[in-house]
Write a structure and sequence with these properties.
about 450 residues; alpha/beta; six-stranded mixed beta sheet
């Protein structure tokens, strides 16, 4: 890499950001900093120092900002290149001015994820660690952040590299027998089969974390649906501990989908409070009902809410018919209005039932437990591995797993050693794609295009 890139490395919020960082990486980074930054006194320009001073226009010497300058010399930096960071006052104008000055001195605006891409290309990170950087930035829960940190620390890289090394060792044994069969003892076929089986089992254990990884990264979308006035909005308010939705005794108050972001058992949950579903001549309410139906169909889980004292009605059954193809939990709300002799309503075909009194905040813990059980979160969280693979990594592992199964089939069919090596190479290549030991430019473009600019 011969050019120098620059970008704003912090989120910029108008009139709210306290600090804004402009980051440069490349051979001109220190030179540009010396032109733009005035460090008064006898401050020493050396790696891993922070200088205090002023950012000035290179020609007019007009003051742009009072700032700090962080210096990092290659290879002791994030990208393993010379890196400098201008720590400016936050907001929009100052950091934009500093960035433009950097660009005017020969830096190029960084592309999305280009700092991390350089870290990967320069050998500081492998591809699993680079993807973990993006996961950490986008983490929506503490558990998601912990999984990303584990990946960043190499806890996915290490087992993948071990598996690939095992496969390479097996391949070396096979190819040695192909080339020098007469000079070497016979191949221990049973031992090779045992090693391949062990690798395949480890791959299966890694694949078992894919669903957990998907939940941690994207979260769960949950829709609260039901007839008008069964307490859907009260349920959302009690669950989110806020007044997100308007609650009245009048049916049809909610006309649009109201969202709230929660975390349940370490899993990000987007909760959608929907308009009551019923037949109506009110065009605005009709639009709300249509949006409710679309939200239910797009949800990962539906909370079908009914009123305890009223019980399971024909209207409830009609709503159930519309959402029965989705994972369901029956929420029996307003149990505080149920007389002692009345049994708790039930509905055939819905496996989970939770009783709540939303206005009193009762039953929320039971609801969260039912949600975790419904998505099998107890199993997902019990995984022994500290990391959770993403979809790209899972696809590569599946290819490796299928190739190893083919090797086992080839051995069982007593085919020549040449056939063993073909599928073994496929498995090695697939494992190399995960860490980046074997990866194409198009795959790198796809991965790093999802990063923010400045990271």
């Amino acid at each position: 890499m011969t050019d120098t890139i620059a970008a704003i490395a912090t989120a910029i919020v108008p009139q709210q950001g306290s600090i804004g960082i402009v980051r440069l990486s490349g051979p001109q980074a220190w030179g540009i900093a010396r032109i733009l930054f005035d460090a008064p006194g006898r401050q020493v320009w050396e790696s891993h120092r922070i200088l205090y001073g002023y950012v000035r226009h290179p020609h007019t010497r007009q003051l742009v900002d009072e700032a700090l300058l962080l210096l990092m010399q290659a290879p002791r930096s994030y990208t393993r290149e010379d890196v400098v960071e201008f720590h400016c006052h936050g907001g929009i104008m100052v950091v934009q001015q500093v960035l433009q000055l950097c660009l005017s001195q020969g830096a190029r605006l960084a592309q999305a994820g280009e700092f991390t891409l350089r870290a990967f290309l320069n050998g500081r990170l492998d591809l699993t660690q680079a993807e973990s950087v993006a996961d950490l930035v986008g983490a929506q829960s503490q558990q998601a952040a912990q999984a990303a940190l584990a990946g960043l620390q190499g806890k996915l890289q290490a087992p993948i590299r071990r598996l690939r090394a095992q496969c390479l060792d097996i391949l070396a044994e096979i190819e040695a027998r192909i080339d020098f069969e007469e000079d070497l003892p016979p191949l221990d076929e049973a031992g090779v089969q045992a090693q391949i089986h062990q690798v395949a089992e480890t791959i299966a254990a890694l694949l078992a974390t894919a669903a957990r990884g998907q939940l941690l990264r994207t979260g769960l979308k949950v829709a609260i649906v039901g007839r008008p006035n069964v307490g859907k909005s009260s349920l959302l308010n009690a669950w989110s501990r806020s007044d997100r939705a308007i609650v009245t005794d009048l049916p049809g108050t909610t006309r649009d989908v109201v969202e709230s972001q929660l975390v349940v058992g370490g899993i990000p949950v987007q909760v959608l409070d929907t308009a009551g579903i019923r037949a109506t001549d009110d065009r605005v309410e009709q639009l709300g009902v249509e949006r409710s139906q679309r939200a239910a169909q797009a949800a990962d889980l539906v909370l079908l809410t009914i009123e305890a004292a009223v019980g399971w009605t024909e209207d409830d059954r009609r709503i159930y018919e519309q959402v029965r193809d989705r994972p369901l939990i029956l929420v029996v709300n307003k149990i505080d209005q149920l007389s002692p002799e009345q049994p708790l309503p039930d509905a055939a075909g819905i496996p989970y039932r939770v009783a709540t009194a939303a206005l009193k905040g009762e039953g929320i813990a039971d609801l969260e437990a039912a949600i975790l059980h419904a998505v099998q979160a107890d199993h997902l969280q019990a995984a022994n591995l500290e990391v959770a693979i993403n979809q790209r990594q899972a696809a590569a592992l599946i290819r490796a797993q299928e190739a190893l199964r083919q090797v086992e089939a080839t051995i069982a069919a007593a085919l020549p050693l040449d056939f063993w090596s073909i599928d073994l190479r496929t498995a090695i290549h697939a494992l190399g794609e995960i860490t980046g030991d074997e990866v194409t430019e198009s795959v790198l473009d796809q991965i790093f295009s999802r990063f923010c600019i400045g990271k």
